[in-house]
Design a protein that fits this description.
10 helices; globular; alpha/beta; FAD/NAD(P)-binding domain; 363 residues; single chain; five-stranded parallel β-sheet
């Protein structure tokens, strides 16, 4: 019987695996990609869509076409569990798929623990397609009150992108950004000061060190008793693990799948994980897209080595990494370590990288 590698999820890491095994097939093995969506969106370009610089389809990748081009089977389904004894991944419709090696790249969901009404009354940034559709609906109304919850890079970028789009359209919306702690707390103090000044210049109300206790249909309630009127509340909070991972029996770290530096799970050497859903034990890193992108080559190499019964090589993500944050117009900030630069050229440089990434996976 032909052996099978099942890739669960169409994230940044697995896109590279489809490409790698397509260009260099693994003798005696078939590759299957399982995803609940046929079309996935590249998250790095989402703020550009919000700002109006891109069309929604500019950041879309068709998984079925990508798989067809690389001799990979595509199955549109949602994995909801793993039976390690039977070596099968359980699907939402009650069926299952057999695997010999399994890899998880299922991303994360917005962290809403303890926030009443978040699931019912807020629009999360992920999945991106759903977010963009909900955003377009509210922007068609006159002078909406919009609150972005989350002071990380995603929240700041989306707030500034929204302000740019609204101003360009002559829209008089009220826009607020609420952060549980200081904004961009993982970035240098100089970067935080720069963005605080930028938000003030763009008339985005910034509320820091203000955890949210509840989200209603028409307001955001803060733990200190304050209330912010809102017609649309956007969730850009930190990353939380998909709930079904807790039912897999795999060892977790902070709720995410715990993996060795080889990207094998601590529980089962035939199950791998990468991207936002995974956490390398002893090597904590932020949930940033750059790590999902960088994990592609080492994961492909170690899956191949496991299939061929060769030794695996550990991978350690770099401590210092480049972060590029868009500021609304065609302008961006690049940060690495304690240093940062700003300018239109940064945006166009990022634009070239992003477009090349999407083009790479459009056969």
């Amino acid at each position: 019987m032909t052996k099978r590698i099942v890739l669960v999820g169409g994230g940044h890491t697995h896109l590279q695996l489809v490409e790698a095994f397509g260009k260099r097939p693994l003798a005696g093995w078939t590759i299957v990609l399982v995803s609940p969506e046929r079309i996935v969106a590249y998250s790095g370009m989402a703020p550009g869509v919000v700002a109006g610089h891109y069309r929604p389809d500019d950041l879309e990748i068709d998984l079925e076409r990508l798989c067809a081009a690389h001799d990979t089977e595509f199955r549109r389904a949602r994995v909801v569990g793993i039976d390690r004894n039977a070596r099968r991944a359980g699907l939402e419709d009650g069926s299952s798929i057999r695997y010999d090696l399994l890899s998880l790249d299922v991303g994360s969901v917005p962290a809403t623990a303890g926030v009443a009404g978040a699931a019912e009354n807020a629009l999360p940034l992920k999945p991106i397609g759903h977010f963009l559709g909900g955003l377009d609906a509210i922007l068609g109304t006159p002078k909406p009150r919009i609150v972005v919850v989350g002071g990380g890079p995603a929240g700041v970028e989306v707030a500034l992108a929204l302000r740019h789009r609204l101003r360009h359209a002559g829209h008089g919306a009220a826009l607020s950004l609420v952060a549980a702690g200081p904004i961009l707390e993982d970035l240098p103090a100089g970067v935080r000061r720069y963005f605080r000044s930028l938000l003030a210049q763009r008339h985005v109300q910034l509320i820091e060190n203000a955890p949210v206790s509840a989200i209603a249909a028409d307001a955001v309630h803060l733990e200190d008793g304050r209330e912010i009127a809102s017609d649309l509340t956007l969730l850009a909070t930190g990353a939380a693990p998909p709930a079904w991972l807790a039912r897999t029996g795999l060892q977790l770290s902070n709720g995410f799948v715990a993996v060795h530096p080889t990207l094998q799970t601590l529980t089962d050497p035939d199950i791998f994980a990468a991207g936002d859903c995974a956490e390398i034990v002893g090597i904590p890193r932020p949930k940033a897209g750059v790590f999902a992108v960088r994990a592609g080559p080492p994961l492909a190499a170690n899956l191949r080595a496991r299939a061929e019964r060769r030794p695996l090589q550990p991978w350690s993500p770099q401590k210092k990494y480049l972060a590029v944050l868009a500021t609304g117009p065609k302008h961006a900030v690049a940060v690495r370590g304690r240093f940062f630069v700003t300018g239109r050229w940064v945006w166009f440089w990022k634009d070239r990288i992003d477009r090349n990434w999407v083009r790479r996976f459009r056969p």
